[in-house]
Specification:
The protein is mainly beta and about 120 residues long. The protein contains 1 helix and 10 strands, in the order E-E-E-E-E-H-E-E-E-E-E.
């Protein structure tokens, strides 16, 4: 399936890390670090704009390592990006851990899965 991607992040376009990968990593496209205190949330931009084919959606999902190690997850998960959406892909991160969590430029913050619907 062809997905048109406009990448304004300066990072490589997301890719499948292995032949059996279901999703691709999304990275934080920020100029300054963002610190999420316990129970705080923030929209983190990715610098990616996508155009999906009709009959598909993209799902933004948490990274299991962030959830297990830091208590950081994606709210509204899976977040659905409809085929008609043309804005920037953003990730709503929430910190349910007991310590502040710092998001740096280029941090892997979520995964994206493109699927038929």
């Amino acid at each position: 399936m062809k997905v048109k991607v406009v990448n304004k992040s300066g990072f490589p376009v997301p890719f499948y890390a292995t032949e059996l990968s279901a999703g691709m990593d999304l990275k934080a496209n920020i100029t300054e670090p963002v610190t999420l205190g316990p129970l705080e949330r923030a929209m983190v931009p990715t610098g990616l704009f996508i155009a999906l084919p009709d009959g598909t959606e993209a799902q933004v999902r948490p990274r299991s390592g962030l959830a297990l190690k830091n208590g950081v997850t994606v709210l509204n998960t899976p977040g659905t990006i409809d085929a008609g959406y043309r804005g920037e892909v953003g990730v709503i991160l929430a910190n349910f851990g007991s310590e502040p969590f710092r998001v740096e430029k280029g941090s892997k913050i979520a995964r994206i899965v493109v699927a038929p619907c």
